[in-house]
Amino acid sequence: MSNLRLNALHITHYKNVSSVEYRFDKPIHCFVGNNGKGKTNTLDAIYHLAMGRSYFSSINAHTIQHHEDFMRIEGHFVRGENNERISCQLKRKAPKVFIRNGKKYNRLSEHIGLLPTVMISPADVDLINEGSQTRRSFIDRLIGQADKVYLQELIQYQKTLQQRNALLKQMGRFDQNAHETLSIYNEKLVQHGTPIHKARLDYLAAFEPIFKKRYTTISKGNESVAIIYESQIKDDNFNTLLQAASTKDLQAQFTTVGIHKDDLAFRIDGYPIKKFGSQGQRKSFLIALKLAQFDMLKESTSVKPLLLLDDIFDKLDEQRVAEIINLVHESSFGQLFITDTNPERTAVVIKQTEQPFELHRL
Predict the structure, then answer these.
(1) For residue range 43-61, what is the model confidence (pLDDT) as tens digits?
(2) Distance of CA 201 to the CA centre of its chain
(3) CA distance 241 to 176
(4) pLDDT tens readout for residues 63-75
(5) C-alpha–C-alpha distance, residues 52 and 192, integer Å
(6) How far apart are CA 8 and CA 2, in angstroms?
């Protein structure tokens, strides 16, 4: 099992030539200070370097500070025996530039999985409250960090889907030529979508038992929880679904069936947790999801992922915080980064881990 460590982080905003630099030589690092001081942004910078995108927004410009035109993030990592210098350059109305050890990536997907990372944040409530796209993104990022083939199939599927949707918007009527053209895209969607569907099924089959074990540990409750993979695809019926939906697709001007419509149903005692779960049950559910993600990544990549905890001490009750700290105390965890508004509370809680830590006051 290899260790993953972040030794240094540099964040630079060029308009005002302002920059901040951190050195990390402890297992646990805590960013403390009042709201609005940049604690969450610092954690997000680490996540951005690991995953190639912000945790909180898919729009690059939202990552850049207001009244700034350009920013640069650089991190010095060690994975096993290899040093990795990763930098990201963001400029408004310009493509993102991602560089590894001085060499620019041709495709950002090549970077995913190099630095396994898990973030736990109050924003995770979107996994329960928002639409299916949020939950699909969760499972796609989870699998994609460990499986390059899956990631490439997903990229090709999305590309084909966009092309098919563009064709549907251009069609004024359904004729033989249109039917033949749609058939070509159908074949490509089936070609790339079928292995994606199978990978999701297999991964969730392995993921759910780990998730249930984590939930039981955190919640101390007797309720049963479940994650149900909901998909229109059954066995080998994908192509049949696409053909049957052709007329509907032409009317709607987009592809109405496929793995891009998949969803995850979160259940507690057989009922949707969104409607019937208490606040505490939802919190335990989300934390269990993320810790199970950590377990799966560690197993599939043979690397202890970085664990980022954003503002959880202020959002969770003492029991759940204590459970998380007990888990972090285990040797199975690697480097940990935390944000909090209360330095005294943070110090008291982290001391329970009996591991070296450092407070960074913002």
Answers:
(1) 999 999 999 999 987 665 5
(2) 18
(3) 19
(4) 655 566 678 899 9
(5) 23
(6) 19
pLDDT of residue 289: 94
Query: Residue 67's pLDDT is what?
Result: 61
CA distance 248 to 254: 9
Distance CA 315, CA 318 (A): 10
Instruction: Give CA–CA dist 289/125, Å, rounded.
Output: 11
Map out the domains of the chain with their CATH numbers.
1-116+306-362 (3.40.50.300), 125-302 (1.20.1050.90)
Q: How far apart are CA 101 and CA 85, in angstroms?
A: 5
- List per-block mean pLDDT (blocks of 10 residues) for the chain, which spans 362 residues: 90 71 91 85 93 80 61 92 93 85 92 93 93 95 92 96 91 63 92 96 96 88 91 88 89 93 96 92 91 91 92 74 67 84 84 83 85
User: How many CA atoms are closer than 13 Å to the CA of 41, on its beta-carbon side?
Assistant: 19
Helices 279-301/318-328 angle, 10° precision: 10
| Phi then psi dihedrals of residue 138, to 5 deg | -60, -50
What CA–CA distances, in Å, run from 330 to 308, 325, 327, 333?
A: 16, 9, 5, 6
State the pTM of this model.
0.89
Q: Which residues contact 128 (CB under 8 A, 6 or more apart)?
A: 266, 273, 274, 277, 282, 285, 286
Question: In this structure, what are the phi and psi dihedrals at residue 206, rounded to the nearest 5 degrees?
Answer: -85, -30
State the pLDDT at residue 327: 65
